[in-house]
Amino acid sequence: MKTVVCKGCGASFLWPRRKKWCDSCAEKAKREYESVITKWSHLTPEQKLAHSRAKDAKTKERMKADPVFAEKERARAAARNARRYERLKAELAAARAAGLVPMPKRRKVDGLLFECLKCHKMLPRGQFPSHGKNRRRTWCKQCYAPEKAAHAHNRHKRSEGRGTFTANRVRQLLREQQGKCANCYASFEVTGYHVDHIVSLARGGRNDDGNIQLLCPRCNLRKGSK
Question: Which of 20, 107, 114, 211 is the most buried (most CB within 10 A)?
Fold first, then answer.
């Protein structure tokens, strides 16, 4: 038996106990928790959403003001996402081993992760290229990059352009542009990306590594052959 100081009131009590709180502080904390739960259960979905957004806004403001808190918050979020990913991955593996999960065109787990049909990795929705309105391809961006490069290369052949670019250059541009559109800085995780020729092939531009950039679909379609 050893003496432990209560984290609530600072009083001393003998170990062991289930929590590092004295009886009065533990009872007070329990009542406060129950009151919060009761109040939360009576809120409407709109009120809950507003409360969550206000809490997120306060957290972001504190992260901007306090770098130490920001680092801890990022670490907590990364650990939380990693645990969630591993749990979903284990559940999917168990269901697949038991034969309970069929093989759809692209597997969706709990609305969070999808399976690439080429590399079979479980990834968020933003890691899949867009394919028309509200549609995503079944291959992730990493696997689809060579296909996208080959498609652009074939198009350049039809337009009798000169030069060629590779899938490695596309991956390099993704890193250099930090996953954002070169024109409007939109995130590719939300919009997807198109491989664009800076000087269009219709105007005599080359189809090589020095004449390509990554744009979001909206900017690329607005640019056209300019």
Answer: 114
Task: Give the model confidence (pLDDT) of 103-130 as tens digits.
Answer: 444 455 555 677 777 787 877 877 877 7
Question: Residue 5 sits in which domain range?
Answer: 1-42
Question: In this structure, what is the dihedral angle of CA atoms 78, 79, 84, 85, given to the nearest 10 degrees?
Answer: 60
Please state, as a whole number, how many other Cβ atoms lie within 10 Å of the Cβ of residue 13.
13
Does residue 195 lie in a domain region?
yes
